[in-house]
Amino acid sequence: MTEMICAGFGGQGVLTAGMLLIHAGMKQGNNVIFYPSYGSEMRGGTANCAIKISEKKIASPVIRQADIVFTMNAPAIDKFESILKPGGLLLVNSSLVDENRTYRDDIRVIKAPVTDIAGELGNPRGANIAMIGVLAASTDLFDPEFLLAQINDYFEAKGKKVPANEACFRKGMETAQ
Amino acid sequence: MTLAEVPTRIVYSRPEVLDKRVTHYCPGCTHGVAHRLVAEVLEEMGEVENAIGVASVGCSVFIYNYFNIDFVEAAHGRAPAMATGIKRLLPDRTVFTYQGDGDLASIGMGEIVGAASRGEKITVIFLNNANYGMTGGQMAPTTLPGQKTTSSPYGKDAARFGKPFRIEDAYSGFDMGYLARGALVGAANINRAKKMIRKAFEKHMDNQGLCYVELLSPCPTNWNLAPLKAKDFLLEEMTKHFPLGEFKGGDAK
Amino acid sequence: MAKQLIKGNTAVAEAALRAGLEGYFGYPITPQTELLEHLSARMPELGRPFVQAESELGAINMVYGAACTGKRVMTSSSSPGVSLMMEGLSYIAGTEVPMVLVDVVRGGPGLGNIAPAQGDYNQIVHGGGHGDYHMIVLAPASVQEAVDLTALAFDLAEKYRTITCIMMDGSIGQMMEPAELPPMQPLRTEIPDWAVRGAKNGDKRVLTSINLDPPAQEVMNLRLMKRWQEIEANEVRYKGYFLEDAEYVVVGFGTAGRIALSAVRAAREEGIKIGLLRPITVAPFPIDVLDELTEKVKAFLVVEMNAGQMFEDVRLVVRGRKPVEFFGRMGGVVPFPDEVLTEIHRLVGTPQTTEGSPRDRWLARLAETIG
Q: Are C206 and B64 inside 8 Å of each other by CB?
């Protein structure tokens, strides 16, 4: 089972990122669960969700120790770095986080300037997709091409085809490699 | 011409929709008059088979024993909410509540204001006798300043318990189909009250919004007054605080 | 129909709509609000009444009126809102009109918090409102199960002229899982004979919960209790896991049951002969199966997200014949499977007793953990 937190400012698409990942997980034949922050937890402009992707049945929606923490800003790191398992993966949006920031030494940290990437590619709302590209390149959770196809599927089903997403995704992958 | 030869004409009889039975109301109480006026209006409008009443908690809790129409019985104060539920599911029916002042003006203030603010298409008949009748004459939001009740034995102190609740102030900002206050003593007042009730039901069925008639009623038992004295008290004292008239939806006269 | 990712609250709302919901009345409260929001869009689309009430008190009494018309109606809320509805629920039970209540339970008492909890068990299962009445209470453990129980909730309410409550932990309402929604059902066309509609030819119907004559009221009470006996005889639903050869049994409902299942599976992998009984109807309570298990097993462990509310019902059935231990988390804290596994190890590894207070023992352990 992979347990993961996605966190960032409201509007950075962290809930969408979580949705995209469990959508792909479901299409891959896994059990999935998505548990968002809600109510007063959402006030103050931050958002997060817990997602689980597993071959086995999933018991709890709550995460105590995460395999992956997918962050889009510094407050998300403040809040969730400590929840990572030793050896876990922290994804950092280096466009918005101090480059001298120090991290736990028992985790893997991958930094990518996803806000800049999305801006440069003319798809400012695609920073979350770029970070999913980073995730795809730095884990074996998904076959990247399958994941990209599922992302496109998800948006098409909502009637929102975003061709620039592919560029963001590939650029994210490239940055991580 | 002998008496037997005088041609007869029925000028007054029990409306068919009222059951032929003695009411449980006290002597001098005018709940019975209010029932009759509602019954006459429903018959005259041909709405008897289309009407659903919502009874409330108070002296009139058994109103459904007297009317041959469908009725439901609400929890104390909740009649406008219950009427909302019925009217929304059966929008072509005549749905009305029949409530007293403890029920409507105190415990049920949230529900009546909610229904009025939504413009719920129901009729509300509000009988005001300035006290809680069923529980034995306690102070109500409608009790007059200085009036003695079983829970204001020294007379109602308006500084501590408020001035009488007045519909024309409370609902002044609402869009309502009709809002009026009548009194159930004296033939002229009763005739006028009936016209008010008729207008309320007509405007309600014309979907003009919540239609609301307050009826001042004497309560000789709890006022500790003989019926005729109670009638005088109503006309002389109660109407000082509760002026009669139409406040919304009335015809210009 | 294919599975789709859907949030529990939205799924129950859509499932109710497809089961022929004809009127919805509610009030916003976290973590239930998406249910109301979904219906605020879908009911008008289908020309069906939706009202956002002035309060939960207003909402339940609107449902009361609407239920008197014999149509399929429901409301939904979360714990503090349901407390406010208790008056109306008692009246509805006393008037014997059917309705569905969805309670998306959160941490309490008081304003508490908005995290998932199971602290409403007592107020939903053992009354809450005044007088002798029961509701049928369904406790789903997944989004799919919540969907599947929704149509059943209406059917049972109408079959027995009673209230059916879908009592789901805040997490079931908030989380998103793959689920398959049922197809759209046509609205019912026949009106039950007892429903108000306008009296033709003086054939009037009066729906009330008042009965001033005590002997007559007692006859009504007897009718309600007999109906409940019928419900107890016919409508018990539960899921058993690994019960055949189980020497130990965990009992838990909803999210706690689902988490316990994960711990039970892990214990089975270690060779511990343990099973899980997950009541789906917490009312009527699965008394017979628990009674049979009592004869077979060595001890029980009850797991809940409260201070042991269903635990008392388990103890009533077990009647001291076997040890019954308790593990709970309160206040919106969701237990983890390994915490339950630790409790299973304790149950299996140390001599159990029917003496003393299992709750006191649990509280002492909990105090050590959380200070």
A: yes
Nearest CB to C114; choose among A26, A34, A39: A39
Ordered DSSP codes for B44-63 = HTT-GGGEEEEE-SSGGGGG
CB contact under 8 Å between C255 and A61, yes or no, is yes
**Which residues, 6 or more positions from A16, have their beta carbon under 8 angstroms from its beta carbon?**
A128
Cβ–Cβ below 8 Å for A36 and C5 = no
ipTM, two decimals: 0.92
Helices (H) and strands (E) in chain C, counts: 13, 15
**Chains linked to A by 3 or more Cβ pairs within 8 Å:** C
Question: Among partner residues C177, C259, C337, which is closest to A33 by beta-carbon distance?
Answer: C177
Q: Does A1 touch chain C (CB under 8 A)?
A: no
Chain B residues within an 8 Å CB radius of C197: 52, 70, 90, 93
Domain of B198: which CATH number? 3.40.50.970
Higher model confidence: residue C351 or residue B229? Answer: B229
The Cα–Cα gap between A44 and B143 comes to: 49
- Against chain C, the chains showing at least 3 CB pairs within 8 Å are A, B
* CATH architecture observed for domain A2-111+144-162: 3-Layer(aba) Sandwich (3.40)
Show me where the domains of chain C are located: 4-234, 239-370
Is residue C136 within 8 Å of C163, Cβ to Cβ?
yes
pLDDT band, residue C8 (cuts 50/70/90): very high
Q: Is A65 on the interface with C (CB under 8 A)?
A: no
Domain span holding position B87: 14-248
- Interface mutation vs chain C, best among B49, B64, B87, B89, most C CBs within 10 Å: B89
Nearest-CB residue to C208 (from B52, B73, B88)? B73
Domain spans of chain A?
2-111+144-162
**pLDDT (tens digit, 9 = 90+) per residue, C299-332?**
999 999 999 999 999 999 999 999 999 999 999 9
| CB-CB contact of C92 with C19 (8 Å) | no
Distance, in Å, from the CA atom of A38 to the CA atom of C348, rounded to the nearest integer, reads 38
Among positive and negative, which fits the CA dihedral A166, A167, A168, A173?
positive
